[in-house]
UniProtKB/TrEMBL annotation:
GO terms for molecular function: peptide-methionine (R)-S-oxide reductase activity. InterPro entries: Met_Sox_Rdtase_MsrB (IPR028427), Met_Sox_Rdtase_MsrB_dom (IPR002579), Mss4-like_sf (IPR011057). Keywords: Oxidoreductase. The gene is msrB_24. The lineage of its organism: unclassified sequences, metagenomes, ecological metagenomes. It comes from bioreactor metagenome. This is Peptide methionine sulfoxide reductase MsrB.
Amino acid sequence: MYFKVSGRYDFIKNFWDKNNKKREELKNKLTPIQFEVTQNDQTEPPFDNEYWDNKEEGIYVDVVSGEVLFTSKEKFDSGCGWPSFTKPVKEDVIIEKRDFSHGMVRTEVRSEKANSHLGHVFDDGPKEHGGLRYCINSASLKFIPKSKMKEMGYYDYIKLIE
């Protein structure tokens, strides 16, 4: 009785309905693997994903929000089977969070704007570039080639890859 009369019932119903609606919208917008990776913190298979060996110039944006996360200039072949980067375009575009899943202690990387699960960051990257390796799921990214950056509204980021 108190739960309904206090207004909490309506608040919770409204809050959860909005979250469920957002998830349904994302399910319709994203591919199944993109949804599982970004929304359910899953990991795609190594060496069997879209960008692990992409060498084209451009930027990598969050597949959910379009927020610019990484550039091809910071991408390197780590041999792990996922796209690897030495750093994000800016520190404030990602959130780092401790991850204790699978019996390991790791640092999860999420996008700041959409809170998409991206992957993990490790301290075994190239020492000459800061020593970090951002190991990112291709399914959480959309690649924008340099040739399309201007027309897609990313003109200001061209200077980062030149």
